[in-house]
Amino acid sequence: MACNRAAKSGFAAEAQRKINSKYSEELAQECLEWIRVITNEPINVSGDMDNFYETLKDGTLLCKLVNCLKPGSVSKVNRSTMAFKCMENISSFLNVAANMGVPAQETFQTVDLWERQNLNSVVTCLQSLGRKAHKFGQPGIGPKEADKNVREFSDEQLKAGQTIISLQYGSNKGANQSGISFGNTRHM
Hints:
- The structure is a single chain.
- It contains eight helices and no strands.
- With 188 residues, the chain is an all-alpha fold.
């Protein structure tokens, strides 16, 4: 756990301060309120780092969250407070979140939560999962994700598009680049 680690110093402490500075209490509070609504658990929804960490560190609430979104997704939730059991809960949550469509770049590593290394990445993961909740019939958080808009063009339409001059190529209305001298120095 985080209390078993030696205090960081030097560059490591500076890097940790930079990571912690990205943490948003407002987004964390929004995540905890969303978790409370979905799971019906009486949790403290204060967004400060200490409360956020204490609420989620053992992974049981995270497993309950994904089981509410997608029933039966985590078959065994460990109630033990032993480190490897708690980390197993967090890992189970991460696997289900990835299967529910949370992109890999928006997930976190188990130690980010368990050892309190990067709580901002935990918030990012929960925000991403919250955007996916609409697909599972639950209220979500954040902006609604866009639906795929696949367009089909016939060969005739594609050939017609090749005859159009793009405005990036210049204009076909008489404009040209005369008078522009390349390589001229800036006069001061």
